[in-house]
Amino acid sequence: MWKQIIKRLCERSDIAIGSDIVIHDSSTYKNMITKGSLGLGESYMKKKWDSPHLDVLIAKLIKAETHKNNLFGAFTKAILWAKSVVFNLQDRKNAPLLSETHYNAGNQLFKSFLDPNMIYSCAYFKHTNDLKQAQLNKIKIVGHKLDLHPGEKVLDIGCGWGGTARILSEMFNVEVTGVSDSTEMIKYANENNAGKKVKFIRADYRDVKGKFDKIYNVGFLEAVGPKNFRSFMRQVNDLLHDNGIFLTHTIGGKYSVNKGDPWLDKYIFPHGVLPSKKQIEKSVKSLFEIRDFEAFGSYYETTLMHWSKNLNRNWHTIKNLFDDPEMFKRMMDYYLLSCKGAFHANMIDLWQYVFTKPNKVGDYKQYRLA
User: Fold this and answer.
1) CATH code matching the domain that covers 98-356, chosen among 3.40.50.920, 3.30.2310.20, 3.30.300.30, 3.40.50.150
2) Cβ 214 vs Cβ 245: under 8 Å
3) In this structure, what DSSP letter does residue 254 have?
């Protein structure tokens, strides 16, 4: 029964069993139906199936709208939905779980596939196919959209390993304070990127004090959670000078949801939820005006392709760090390539918003990389 259902699904999705997807273990069929995306990902991790083009396979499944079929993984989805409704999964108590699960997995892992500056977000590949240069392009864009001027005080919420803060400070001669709740990230940032004009603090964003001329976050809003979007924007509003500018760079989803993908939630980004445009615009109402918006999700496809190739090229140097190297590698492959497929299918996108306080900033000149 399970096999016949999946065969019909593959036919509708233009997926050929035996070539596009190769099933090694028949339990895969049942896992896909009873656990949905969680079962699909876990079966891949356990080498129960393979695909020569994993990203293309995922894109086909998404375009066929299999994720909307309530038959697949209904129980798994229901549990995650119930948890997200009953609990605030991104509150002070739960927020560090993401850092402990993913970002504290070890800097050697991330060094193996990121650019030399350790920038873990979408790069901007205009006029280049070089990952490092594309990340510098993105940072330059952030700086210009913030209209940075020498001597200004800037806050980076969710600063990662600190590369963006350091480079912005060097490019625009500004003072940057980076905050993150990840122990490993802040330790690395202070050892490698701190300086006279750049400092890093381990803190929850809700505990940040002071006033700043400009504020930005890159790849952080996804960890804030729908129940906290409004309070997050209030906090940014409180920290920002009245004539200041705020930029957010985030992956976004087509639909407003209160939960993430079950597989990503379990293995990569616990409690991560992609905001929708509607959720973002509702969260800033009366607090900020939208002064600019740019979408460039296609560049995230390219970014993920680079990360995947880098990981494959450097895997031999780090594989002994993990208890089960093969399963961990397959987990990372599934993560990077399934996300690439989701961008290709236009299920998700990459957005940059620029905000100012209502009626506080007159002329604002939008910036695009020439």
Assistant:
1) 3.40.50.150
2) yes
3) S
Angstrom distance (rounded) from CA 186 to CA 178: 9
10 has catalytic annotation: no
In sequence order, the 6+-apart residues with CB closer than 8 A to the CB of 106 are 184, 321
Q: CA of 308: how far to CAs of 136, 209, 312, 337, in Å?
A: 20, 38, 6, 7
Phi-psi region of 281 (alpha: psi -120 to 50; beta: other; left: phi over 0): alpha
Binned at pLDDT 50, 70 and 90, residue 13 comes out as confident
Q: Which of 10, 122, 159, 339 is catalytic?
A: 339
Task: Give per-residue pLDDT as tens, 321-342.
Answer: 999 999 999 999 999 999 999 9
pTM of the shown model: 0.91
Domain boundaries, the chain: 2-72, 98-356
User: pLDDT tens digit string along 61-120?
Assistant: 888 887 665 555 444 444 444 444 444 555 565 556 555 666 666 899 999 999 999 999
What's the pLDDT score for residue 244?
98
Residues 6+ apart with CB under 8 A from 166: 117, 176, 193, 194, 195, 198
Task: Identify the DSSP state of 17.
Answer: B
d(CA 220, CA 353): 13
